[in-house]
Amino acid sequence: MSARARRSQAQMLADIHAAALAELTEVGIGRMSMAGIAQRSGTARTSLHRRWSSPTEILLEAVEDNYPQETVSPGLDDLRGDLIRALGFLADWVTTPTALAVEAILMERGRHPELAQALYERVFDRNGGRFTRTVLLHYAEHGHLDPALVTDVVTDIGEALVLKHLADNGSPPDSSLLARIVDEAVLPAVGRPLVVDREP
Amino acid sequence: MSARARRSQAQMLADIHAAALAELTEVGIGRMSMAGIAQRSGTARTSLHRRWSSPTEILLEAVEDNYPQETVSPGLDDLRGDLIRALGFLADWVTTPTALAVEAILMERGRHPELAQALYERVFDRNGGRFTRTVLLHYAEHGHLDPALVTDVVTDIGEALVLKHLADNGSPPDSSLLARIVDEAVLPAVGRPLVVDREP
After folding, report:
1. pLDDT at site A3
2. Looking at the UniProt feature table, which residue ranges are given for the DNA-binding region (chains A, B) (predicted)?
């Protein structure tokens, strides 16, 4: 296959994913169709059916492909920075079309519980379950934190505060607020001394 | 006015409030009408117009009347219990019709920003802004906590974790999880020693 053909296939896949996200937010889960995604992406319906069994399969793959993966700095010497970066991935992501699709799936979980469940299993759990959890577990595994303090409640603090700010203000926290969330809420919960007047 | 007449008026007001909440969740903010609320509550439309200028005025009053007020125990000797009770008010409230109405107002804030703003000013801010904030400020004012630690981030930790649990699970935290939220997330942020294996 030529480089040109590969690019073109990658672009087609991106278009199909974007079409699935748009289809969801515009017509809702219950009325998503292969025909709709085919039309929005300029793809033949038969091509879609060869690769995917249903519109929601395309949708889940689109979310998987556009979900950020939390990382840890190699030196194990920047817990604070790693936590701020982890929450930064979330803050950057929440305004993307993928995040709107995730919100729509969670809002319709009453009618489509299997889709919400697949979202948790295939996307959230596979990517660490919560932003900051991968970082906290990593530092705990290497003896820098007491592992007993890295509970499900504690690993949810940062994500909960970022999403709460979004719900209250309509926009995610900026970088200075992300740093305050880490300094004032996440680090104290894992036994770090609290620094109120931290130098910039 | 006789006791019987007063009861009857209180009941009518409760019915009108309930009708406004139901009207919102069924037809949406944009299509709420005095006629709809009158019909749902079995009240004459003219009676509504005498007291309220618009359907959203009734709606805001209904939310105000059904929003819990956080309290502090008189002895100033049970910070943990007061925090758990504060989050318990929120956990009990989030499944009520009023909470569904609040969710609907916040979701339509893009189209009706003035209503969302009125909600924050007349309901949330007037009731302490955040659950646990009244308690934390009270203990800080009486010298039991460093006031510098009671920031907007810290006073949002408990509420953010309760609402996050609701979003992830479709139900609010139970009482043992509320206690863990206080022990593992809220108390560490205000400088209290963390108790991991607390006796019941």
Report:
1. 53
2. 33-52
